[in-house]
């Protein structure tokens, strides 16, 4: 074999090695980024990532759950305000006591309610159509509970039945061992499913009438036409002032693995939500999450998650569900900036257009106006009534 042939063989081997090395480098460069290896556990420590897999939610009644989340393509914020309804009453922005029947002594003004307290203060004339129930004699809590309808909904609207606890001077869901001289029933006028309509109001009347017959009480229903009209006005206000913001965090170059996303989000306080591919930033015990971070649920459930590519995630804020004092949009911007720097990403709208700081400043200014409109209507963001209306 001549020297020339040896040189050709050697050159071919070098070229082949270079091609193999380049392909390996290119594959590694484009492979999904993986999370850092966790520190070694001490003996006896339980396995897992140590994160509490629980999503904070607002607790409704027996079968009332918030509606499914819908993520808007940007800031769907209305600017037009509406005059407060003439029948609005109570400190609704702080979850105050609902309207009392004429014969009922007025309950004292209360401060902000905890989630547990709010479950006993469901009805408020600001967002509910309320029907007092006049009983022939005091009704025991056991009798009231036995007569309750099997569901607490009229169509898509939650409704509730309450009794007035004379000792505590407050309305509450009927409790065993209590006796009630005054009761009331109410149905919510609007939620994200729309306004209360004639059919739903009629269903409410039938269920409450059956309850009243069982406890020997006489209901005093409000005028259906007036309540349906009030429901439409409230629904229009809610539609004009409902803001569900969502932004996309997109990888600049290499994609991310689900574990990589989870690890960086966990460093900022996010915990796994109730659904695959969803992480939430808790706002407090029993409260809706401050922010949510979601990605492809199929990637989250993959058999080989570290080999699964995630090219973008969605960072969302349900404005009406988070109190203004938490400054959730400022927190969203901090989280987005931290994740973009740590994960080599860029913040975009849903069309993939990068969002400059000026655009975010404009949204922040619009949000302040939105908060003002909600405050003026006694439906402050994060209040129990606002969370019920925007659910």
From TrEMBL:
Give the InterPro entries listed for this entry: ZipA_FtsZ-bd_C, ZipA_FtsZ-bd_C_sf
Q: Where is this region: Disordered?
A: 30-55, 68-110
Q: Where is the ZipA C-terminal FtsZ-binding domain?
A: 241-370
The organism's superkingdom is given as Bacteria
Q: Which regions are flagged for Low complexity bias?
A: 68-98
Q: What's the protein here called?
A: ZipA C-terminal FtsZ-binding domain-containing protein
Source organism of the structure: Comamonas faecalis
